[in-house]
Amino acid sequence: MTKFIIQTNEVMKVNLRQLVVFEAVYRLVAGVFYVRLADGLLRFCLDRAGYSYLTMSNMREFFLRPWTAASILLLLVLGAFLIAVETGGILTAYQAAAYSRRIDCAVILRGALGKTWDEIQKKDWQLLPLGMIGTLFMNGWILMRAFSRIRPLDFILDELLAALGVPFLLAVAAVLMMIIGIPSMLVFFACMVEQKRFGDGVRRSRELLAGKWPALLGLLLAVNGILLGALVLIYAVIVLICALLVTLFADAYVSAAVLTEACMRLEAAALFVGSILVTAADYGALTVAYYQFGRKKEHAAPWDFTLPYSLHVKRKWFLRITAAFAAASVFMIADMIYNGSVFDWSSLGQAEITAHRGSSRMAPENTLAALEAAMEEMADFAEIDVQMTEDGVVVLCHDTNLRRVAGVNKSLAGLTFEEAEKLDVGSFFSPEFAGERIPSLAEALELCGGRLKLNIELKNLGADSSLPEKTVELIREYGMEEQCVISSVRLSYLQRVKEACPELRTGYILPAAYGRYYENEYVDFISIRSSLVTRRLVEAAHEAGRAVHVWTVNSRADLEAMRLLGVDNLITDYPARAREILYEETAPGTLLDYLWMQLR
């Protein structure tokens, strides 16, 4: 076993740097494309089903619809194809390493595409599901860890596992995958390296592994154990450093939320890197087994995986292909940032946090300072109120009369924007914010683009007001259709918004929960006072594919109650506290609490 581990290390070292670069860039580009496609298909299927949101109540009916089934099949086939291309690249790198040849990323990519094209020509479609099974085996622990950190998926998995008979079916599926997967561990080598057809490749894999598969399985377990242990240790050190920094530098009221958010992002990066290294290590072990078990006649035994020092790296090609892939990935990720979230988890019913009128307990309401504070408190949304000045400029302000916020007994509608922006709307809150002014919606959109989602409430200015159309026009001008939702107490405003921009999500603000307003075609979510929310109302709205936003939820008891009722969005004056309560079972108080909270 020790000898095999040493040989695995040797074969990995030959082209490890180039392989890791190829894997990282390939997964970034392919992953962003795949997730963007999945997001688009989800939205398309939701639209075909007449739903705005996917919830546990309507999930069964949604997945049984023909368009949904067809989209899932398309995603599975595409995912399997992308895995096959990746596998071709990995085998290219290790095939070269077995003969002590260093290659660059261009050769790895060419080998990935060439080997996949050869399999398509041979019509070896069976490799696609086999590749998915192999990926599940290699990255099973990492995938489960990732899913357990994504709350909608975690919730869905918990619900499925609680269903009668599902654990038994999953156990049977796992056994079947092992029966299929273990004897077929070297099929990709037989097909992509020896150019055998799939059936012959299966027979070749079984021949090579006859009586030797327990040793190979033990090697894979040992390699994965060593690698995952190292990753866990590194992550624990990172969490410790984060906890110390948060304790030293973050304000107490946001410390738990800051640590939670920081560690979630760090863990996502660690899981991404870990999945690449685990895949590389597993295929390194399989390469050792393949060449030592079956290729001795073509090479002196034992197979020597060490690299002669005379070989050199083609740095020019390596740098060129790396730069090209990096540029493509940066472009796609930039597109994701500037055009809204790549995947909108609110579609799956994840509870999100909205800062009321910006972070109105930390800065003057409906100001740019309040929006900045909402970002600092890591709110998902900021709720803002908009009206129009006398000259038709859309601005942020809740009251029609400015006496409370500006100390002047004047109507906002009677002032031009130039007159309105001269008023001080910060001194009433604190001397620290003296001189804070009324911002235009355009300024707010420019500030929040790519940083913070907005729930824009249209104040009721009467049937003749052009506020709905002007608001939509500004959102389109800044390209923030995916980043904004619009709400109002006036249903006709929402209808006009939908007619002007059907893709914008709209919310009906209800003073009381009477009737089935959530079934209206112009309403994607309802926004209601938290004291009026009941489980029956939430379930009815979810069954209709609509979300439930509640306001204004500030106390711990109310936040916990809303979490238990399963609402989709909480509008609160305390975003950091809300995140701490919603996303952690207990509020951490000490450094040890922080560490346990993140490492458990």
Automatic annotation (TrEMBL):
SUPFAM superfamilies membership: PLC-like phosphodiesterases
InterPro entries named in the record: GP_PDE_dom, PLC-like_Pdiesterase_TIM-brl
Transmembrane regions: 67-94, 127-148, 168-194, 215-248, 268-291, 317-338
Segments forming domain GP-PDE: 351-582
Highest taxon listed in the record's lineage: Bacteria
Keywords for the protein's UniProt record, in alphabetical order: Membrane, Transmembrane, Transmembrane helix
GO biological process: one example: lipid metabolic process
GO function term, MF aspect, one: phosphoric diester hydrolase activity
Protein name per UniProt: Glycerophosphodiester phosphodiesterase
Upper classification of the organism: Bacteria, Bacillati, Bacillota, Clostridia, Lachnospirales
